[in-house]
Amino acid sequence: MSLHPVLHPVVDAVTRRIRERSRTSRAAYLERLRAAAAQGPRRRSLGCANRAHGFAGCTAADDKAALRDGAIPAIGIVTSYNDMLSAHQPYGAYPERLKAAVRAAGGVAQVAGGVPAMCDGVTQGEPGMELSLFSREVIAMGTAVALSHGTFDGVLCLGVCDKIVPGLLIGALSFGHLPTVFVPAGPMPSGLPNKEKGRIRQLYAEGKVDKDALLEAEAASYHAPGTCTFYGTANSNQMLVEMMGLHLPGASFANPGTPLRDALTDAAARRVVGLRTPIGEIVDERAVVNAVVGLLATGGSTNHTLHLPAIAAAAGIALSWEDFADLSAVVPLLARVYPNGSADVNQFEAAGGMAFLIGELAGAGLLHGDAATVWEEEGIAAYRRPLRLEGEALVRGEEVRESRDPAVLAPVSAPMAAEGGLRVLTGPLGRAVVKVSAVKPDHRVIEAPARVFADQESVQAAFRRGELHRDVVVVVRFQGPKANGMPELHKLTPPLGVLQDLGYRVALVTDGRMSGASGKVPAAIHVTPEAAAGGPLGRVRDGDVLRLDTERGTLELLVEAAELDARPVADAPADAGAGCGRELFGVFRRAVGSADSGASVFG
């Protein structure tokens, strides 16, 4: 099999379109990157007091001497460690391990800085969720602060979950002249099956089980160090980073605390010491397209319709929702992982994981197989051969040519669906995105009267009162980035799922986000322009008929244009942007861009 088959014409066309659209901004980025690379690490030109501050804290005598001499590679570690959150708890032991491996490879590593890692699972439906999306920007800035000392030759980024990896990527790309390797921690072992967890949640929403039963199910699902095992944003992050060539081959989904995970962590440290290709050169138009293709082929998190444009912009690349939609039309869905199926990510890995996925996509010409990677050999096509343990040695495995479980991970020749299932909807309300990979075909076109809300708590209260037990399009507005930081509305999934199971025609339309775990109910999310920016979503009234047609890509409001234009925009809810630290993020809400440009405060 050729390593680089002929590229699919749509993948080629979209890549060319992105490259042309980004010509000026990408050129400016690369010019800045190369100017910084030409200067080299500033530690060699720092004053003596500056240099002494940089190695004063070293406790290993050899490391201090090496940093004082300045002749060997210095590696900065940026970590998102905390021991409250399961996905980041394993990182506590990483710095010393990485330092030892870097030292053995002829370099010196220091923890350059830490960045916050918050959990959307803990903050769902709580005030803290209004800080969640903006934490990506804080993490990017924290990464920049960590690297601003200018003393490093390379970077190791330690991050897993929702906003952490995008934030680390945006920050690292601001120092795009530095070779950078991302070091994952892996998913927790499988616990209570995700499908059973979802069933218990829905029973609780119906009042059929009590809170103790719900907590027992949740604790049996989220039960150990590592990422949650469903295919939400955290595990979508890991897939994307490997698709972009910033992990080592096969590193994404090895469990924490295993010999393979330890070996991969050591290998990442060794790799960065000798790595010459900087992150800003690796993350080019090809890598961005590969990431989108991977997202579509696996039915990944809708949050990445925000994160990927923001990440791309940090590298001078303009990625649009139309690029997602055009690629979705030709990229087949190859994975069924909860909420798009019953399997978890450990079963995905056991079925062949990233190696099989990359091999299938590359073999079909759906990937840029020659895209640069931290492996620096053969491009991303080399990732068809994952790193594996033979005894105590980490070696390149064989290509994974067949899925070990086609019900979880399918070949291109027999996909789960012919297309990726991510659609862009347009209409008089603006633009929105919808993921239909978990939506059954008979629920993909919904026409029903609207019931309008300004927060998800009001939706839940109306559900409990029985007011939504009918065909209904639930409209939840003033949930965009300018309004309140764009919290996820994940708690709407169980009640809407109950209504759908009762036979009602149900959909959600919102300028907010759904979780990476959103699933079977059609949801037009990220409506742009948002209501708080004067968008027409603010003119929708109870009883207006909405038609959400994911097949045609339309979101229609069956109200005459003149009548809609004549309506006043609804008043935004009273500002609740205080408490739980929200008052500190007002500047972000005022400066944030639109959802279709990444909901970013940068640029």
TrEMBL record:
This enzyme's EC code(s): 4.2.1.12
Which pathway does the UniProt entry assign to this protein? Carbohydrate metabolism; Entner-Doudoroff pathway
This enzyme catalyses:
6-phospho-D-gluconate = 2-dehydro-3-deoxy-6-phospho-D-gluconate + H2O
Q: What is this protein called?
A: Phosphogluconate dehydratase
Listed cofactors: [4Fe-4S] cluster
Which keywords fit this entry according to its UniProt record? 4Fe-4S, Carbohydrate metabolism, Gluconate utilization, Iron, Iron-sulfur, Lyase, Metal-binding
UniProt key word Lyase: yes
**Species whose genome carries this gene:** Azospirillum isscasi
Key word Nuclease present in the record? Answer: no
Q: Name one GO molecular function term.
A: phosphogluconate dehydratase activity
Q: Which residues form the Dihydroxy-acid/6-phosphogluconate dehydratase N-terminal domain?
A: 73-377
Family classification? Belongs to the IlvD/Edd family.
